[in-house]
Amino acid sequence: MTAAYLTPETGATLVKFMRVRTRRGVLLVAHIDGDRVVFSAGGRPAHSLYLSVSTKARVRAHWRGFLEAHGIIEARPGDWVSFPSSSMPSGYRSGRVLAVGPLHAIVRYRFQHGRMAAPRAVRLEDLVVDLSARARLEARQLAALEELQP
Predict the structure, then answer these.
(1) Do 74 and 68 form a contact (C-beta atoms < 8 A)?
(2) First-to-last C-alpha distance (Å) of the chain
(3) pTM, full prediction
């Protein structure tokens, strides 16, 4: 079985929604330029892949690495995250990740005075992970393990 390599048309469809703004306001974008997928940060090309030797999985993996290199960390179940929401005055909602798939995370978020809403699928590249909350949770888990040690 051969891999399904990308064409400019299939590549354009894949990267259509690959855009996110970092907390510092830098716009990270993937776009097609001739026979390449180009990842840009703040309008400057930073990384590219040839379409003719790239699969969807390869492009997605490089996109995730590109996001991590710019401070956007992949979410894990239990993480507190923020994500864009046009109905909020701040432009963002916060919630807790319940599950993570290849393209989306299932997030239970807050609304109307802090009540938790039904879970919602959010694109991975739209999530901003609260690393301080993750660090506090990991510290509590480590302390609990140390208490179990004889």
Answers:
(1) yes
(2) 54
(3) 0.55
